[in-house]
Amino acid sequence: MSTDPHTGSSHPDMPTSAERMLRPERAQNLDTFKILNFCPMNHRDTVVDVGCGPGYFTLPLAKFLVNGKVIGLDTSDDMLKACQERLDAVRLGNVNLLKCGEYEFPVAPGTVDGLFIAFVLHHPEDRVRFLKAAGEMLKPGGWCFILEWHAKETESGPPQETRIDPVQLGQIARDSGFRVQTGARDINNDNYMIALSKR
């Protein structure tokens, strides 16, 4: 058994975490087109996909950012490899993938327009430290778009004790140097999204 770095749940080694994260039925609940329509980005932005995994959101971001750029970060070599293989298959050239630490990001401070953080914030033990460190990559006034699990029982997802409800997330954001730009909005019955801006 191994632990999925994105869900925190134990599972057999087959199928791989990447395969599970890219399974077709996931797209029924997580419509990337619909979600990106709510994201406060324009097509010229440079966006960091923090915890990009195998690229579930990285590829749609790259397609949207026709005159922009995506920097995909992950702590896992396997996830970065899976993401690169998918990028190569569709020949998207506006993505750069880099390995990061839990609280260390290899991107120069103040150089990117936005952060896209999907189902990652519940993982770090020190969430304020994580979001503050991620925020250092942003230009002044930059945006941060976060997707998370509702703090309730669902058929899948991380353990209840690690989940963050929207009120908690708002406080984490303020403690990390952000302001809530757009309040929490449900994506589906299990997940929500929230948009922040850097103070």
Total beta strand runs: 9
Look at the structure and give the mean pLDDT: 89
Strand order of the largest sheet: 5-4-3-6-7-9-8
Q: What is the second-level CATH architecture?
A: 3-Layer(aba) Sandwich
At the first level of CATH, the class is Alpha Beta
Strand content: 25-35%
Low-pLDDT ranges: 1-15
| Structural domain tally | 1
- The proportion of residues forming helix, as a percent range, comes to 25-40%
SSE string, helices as H and strands as E: EEHHHEHEHEEHEHEE
Shape: globular
N/C terminus separation: 42 Å
Main sheet summary: 7 strands, mixed
- Gyration radius, rounded: 16 Å
Given helix and strand content, the structural type is alpha/beta
CATH homologous superfamily assignment: Vaccinia Virus protein VP39
Q: Assign the CATH topology.
A: Rossmann fold
Total helices: the number is 7
Q: How is the quaternary structure best described?
A: single chain
Give a short overview.
By secondary structure, the chain is α/β, with parallel strands linked by helices. The protein has helices spanning 17-21, 26-29, 32-38, 58-64, 77-90, 127-135, 166-175, and strands at 2-3, 10-11, 46-50, 69-74, 95-99, 112-118, 138-149, 178-186, 191-198.
